[in-house]
Amino acid sequence: MLYISDETIDRWIKEDVPYLDLTTLTLGIGGHQGKICFTAREYTVLSGVEEVLRIFTKLGITPIRALSTGTLVDKGDVFIEAEGLASSLHMAWKLSMNILEYSSGIATRTKKMVDKVKAVNPEMTVLATRKSFPGTKELSIKAILAGGAFPHRLGLSETILIFKQHLAFLGDINDLARVIRQNKAYACEKKIIVEVETLDDARLLIEAGVSGLQFDKLPANDLKLIVAQIRGINPNIVLLGAGGINGDNIEEFAHTGIDAAVTTAMYFGKPSDIGVTMVRI
Questions:
Q1: What is the pLDDT of residue 78?
Q2: 156 and 99 in one domain?
Q3: Which of 94, 76, 75 is nearest to 36 (CA)?
Q4: Domain containing 63: what range?
Q5: d(CA 188, CA 202)
Q6: Which three-class secondary structure string do you get for the chain?
Q7: What are the Cα distances from residue 113, in Å, to 86, 138, 144, 240, 269?
Q8: Shared domain check, 212 and 146
Q9: For 45, which of 3, 71, 108, 175 could close a Cys bridge (C-beta 3.0–4.6 Å)?
Q10: Residues 71 and 188 reside in one and the same domain
């Protein structure tokens, strides 16, 4: 689904185990053979499982059974079982649990929002912003895909997305309209999306040839009226709603007629509750 390098996996392990596991060493239990099990304590959409299995492999742990990323599990479901030396199991334990809990938390929140949207408008998409915490982007992207959403923008190198902060260096909306015409020739294979606040600005930019418009922090009722008017001008233009959209109000935005809801909400919330047990064998 998504490639994460061996270098990244190694860095995660090294970050948590810079030298050795002092506790296991001093207890003298590292040479015992054991089994580790990961169990869901609540409804969860799994994510990060494959990365945990790669951590196991690097530490000499043998997976016995594992459910894949994107699988729905309920309270009490065991989704990973593995065997190895106690020293290895303890090195893998918290790192693996952190990856699973945080990634699955994002995936679960994402799926709940996607389900709410699809129940109202099956054609509408949920897009996740690039506001994930630095250093966690790969796991975050994998998690939102597992939950049924799609990345809004993977990075600055990917798309042309123009905000009012760009206008501070251009002039006004009329200057932007002129630049867009030039951009369409310069980056002819790229779509140009502009964040707008008014219907008049939207009309001007549609005439300039933008591919899509993004409306920020408009109440759902106001956005619904503007969307209807814009569809009358250009029924094929991509329309996005953004700003303040979350799991509690996303259904309201699903009724507006936008093509996608852009949200950060899936990144913030409690991790999934996952239990870990070990036994000596």
A1: 98
A2: no
A3: 94
A4: 6-112+270-280
A5: 21
A6: CCCCCHHHHHHHHHHHCCCCCHHHHHHCCCCCEEEEEEEECCCEECCCHHHHHHHHHHCCCEEEEECCCCCEECCCCEEEEEEEEHHHHHHHHHHHHHHHHHHHHHHHHHHHHHHHHHHHCCCCEEEECCCCCCCCHHHHHHHHHHCCCEECCCCCCCCEEECHHHHCCCCCHHHHHHHHHHHHHHCCCCCEEEEECCHHHHHHHHHHCCCEEEEECCCHHHHHHHHHHHHHHCCCCEEEEECCCCCCCHHHHHCCCCCEEEECHHHCCCCCCEEEEEEEC
A7: 40, 21, 11, 16, 13
A8: yes
A9: 108
A10: no
Find the length of the chain: 281
Residue 229 and residue 217: Cα distance in Å, rounded?
Answer: 18
Q: Has residue 1 been placed in a domain?
A: no
> What is this structure's pTM?
0.94
Q: Which amino acid is at 100?
A: L
* Residue of 266, 247, 245 whose CA lies nearest to 151: 266
Domain count along the chain: 2
Low pLDDT (below 50) residues in the chain: none
CATH assignment of the domain containing 48: 3.90.1170.20
